[in-house]
Amino acid sequence: MSDTTFWSSDIRERELRMWTGLGPVGYRVRNVIVSILLMMAAVGTFLLLSTLVSLYPGTGTVVRGPGDRAVQATGGACARGGPISGYGFGYWWECDAILRDGDGGTRVVRVGSSVLTPDDLGRTVEIRQSCRDGDCEYGRAANQWLEGLLLAVGRLGWFLMIILGGTAVVPVVRAVVGAPRYLRLHGRLFPRKADGSAG
Question: What is the pTM of this model?
Answer without folding.
Answer: 0.61
